[in-house]
Design goal:
By secondary structure, the chain is mainly beta. Helices cover 3% and strands 41% of the residues. Strand 31 and strand 32 (415-420) form a beta hairpin. It is globular.
């Protein structure tokens, strides 16, 4: 009130950064002059836009291409002369740069969107910015760096197939990087479709299947030849996969077309799609193999599908924004994590009825059922905890603190492993006593999202999304090996024998 000034109040994104529902970060600009009173902007801005605005107001230079070519918050101000925090002049142009345009795609800045089942990442990365971008960068693996090209995956070794959702250098498509679990080395990246998000391994056919959200397709990859087959057209925005125990049918959750597409794995043909609820985000097979269960994100319901008839059964109401599921032994019970209502809903697949919702922590985003089905583990993404649920009592019996922004839980050898995205760690909790062991570090700012255990039960792979790498872990010794470089923004992994 006594000087020319501008106060900016803003927030970071929450831990579940995905377009469904979209991130809308509250940002307030309060000025002593030239700020439009009561104005709400309809322009899409980022935090780089705020930095660009502040730099211009103070007469400072930019730090990187991220803020240099970000759109300043011009429409918020009433001034037109560029003074008093009014209109911000565009940066001086380089070759091929139009100075009158400040859209993120102009002058060497690219908007990247990475959509994941359990999480997503978005922001601006300048082309050629090297290893400093995105916090987890390393020399030689920054934006524009070539993918590993050596053929060093041995044919009969166990292999982890890592889905790289970024466009890389493969004609704008995503890729899958095979990683030899014995040598801990990556082989040549395999080109798939655009924006791949999920991968599933067939137990019988020697094939892994990749869901390409941006292409509306599924790419089969031979685990013997490490070559991609012809893409299979499915519905819009496929983002989750499940395969029957006999390996004969692959089910694809098409979030954009509100359907599930069965695929005959013997012929590679897509069958007639099955209508389900709005935005199916997660899909799983009951352990009996008789039912497919689909979590309909926008509907707040789950839809069972009969494997025998290929028809959807009556939808079952659960909580708001169901995002993940775990299945009990025998396939009778499913436990659905409801991100929007801070609860887990037990569902009896035999009767098609939901039980009483169980209140847990804030933002549950992953769930796993212990051996014997007596205990259910739920990750509370916004309250940094692992909830312990008694299946018999149908209630929360305890909670264990984990790291910051947990995103996944995996059970192996009597231990629950929780991936903590922002902490860059994996918490270890005894499934018997609930006691915590020392967490495993997989790299600060590598933003791990997913952990999966290989068929041997000893080796685990942690997907470090911002680090463009995968960390292999020996679960017996607790040793974390040197990270293996893969492609841009890995988001999923599947295991099979080479």
């Amino acid at each position: 009130t006594t000087q020319r000034s501008l106060a900016i109040i803003t927030f970071d994104e929450d831990n579940y950064n995905d377009p469904h529902p979209p991130q809308r970060v509250v940002t307030l600009l309060i000025g002593s002059a030239v700020v439009r009173r009561g104005y709400v902007s309809g322009v899409r801005y980022t935090h780089y836009s705020l930095l660009r605005t502040i730099e211009a107001g103070l007469g400072l230079g930019s730090l990187t291409a991220n803020d240099r070519f970000a759109a300043p918050t011009n429409d918020v101000f009433t001034g037109s002369s560029g003074s008093e925090m009014g209109r911000v002049a565009p940066p001086s142009s380089g070759a091929g740069c139009a100075p009158q345009r400040l859209a993120p795609d102009d002058c060497g800045a690219t908007f990247l969107r990475v959509k994941g089942g359990k999480g997503a990442l978005s922001g601006l990365v300048g082309r050629g910015m090297g290893s400093g971008s995105y916090g987890g960068g390393r020399a030689g693996v920054g934006p524009g760096a070539p993918l590993v090209s050596r053929e060093i995956v041995r044919r009969h070794d166990p292999v982890a197939f890592v889905v790289d959702s970024g466009p890389g250098s493969l004609t704008g498509a995503g890729s899958v990087t095979p990683v030899d679990l014995r040598t801990r080395q990556a082989g040549r990246a395999i080109a798939v479709g655009k924006d791949p998000l999920a991968i599933e391994s067939s137990p019988r056919s020697g094939t892994v299947y990749v869901a390409n959200a941006g292409s509306g397709s599924v790419t089969p990859i031979s685990t013997r030849t490490l070559r991609a087959g012809r893409a299979i057209r499915v519905g819009s925005d496929p983002r989750a996969l499940a395969i029957t125990p006999d390996g004969r049918t692959l089910y694809v959750a098409d979030a954009g077309s509100n359907e599930v597409t069965p695929v005959d794995t013997r012929t590679g043909r897509a069958l007639r799609p099955i209508k389900v609820g709005v935005e199916p985000w997660a899909i799983g097979v009951g352990l009996s193999g008789r039912e497919i269960l689909v979590a309909d994100w926008r509907s707040g319901r789950v839809t069972p599908i009969s494997v025998a008839t290929g028809r959807a059964l009556r939808a079952i109401k659960v909580g708001a924004y169901p995002v993940a599921m775990g299945f009990g032994p025998g396939g009778r019970m499913a436990y659905v994590a409801n991100f929007g209502s801070d609860s887990v809903t037990p569902v009896n697949l035999a009767t098609g009825r939901a039980g009483q919702a169980i209140g847990v922590g804030s933002g549950p985003d992953a769930v796993a059922v212990g051996q014997g089905g007596r205990r259910v583990y739920v990750v509370n993404g916004n309250s940094q905890s692992l909830g312990l649920i008694s299946a018999r009592a149908g209630r929360l019996t305890g909670s264990v603190k984990v790291g910051y922004s947990p995103a996944d839980v995996t059970l192996a050898g009597g231990t629950a492993y929780v991936v903590n995205t922002i902490s860059g760690t994996v918490s270890r909790i005894s499934a018997v006593t609930g006691r915590r062991a020392r967490p495993l570090s997989v790299g600060l700012y590598s933003y791990p999202l997913v952990m999966s255990v290989a068929p041997d039960g000893v080796t685990a792979a942690v997907i470090d999304t911002y680090g463009w790498q995968v960390s292999l872990v020996n679960l017996r010794s607790g040793r974390v090996y040197k990270p293996v470089n893969v492609g841009e923004f890995p988001v999923a992994v599947a295991f099979t024998q080479g």
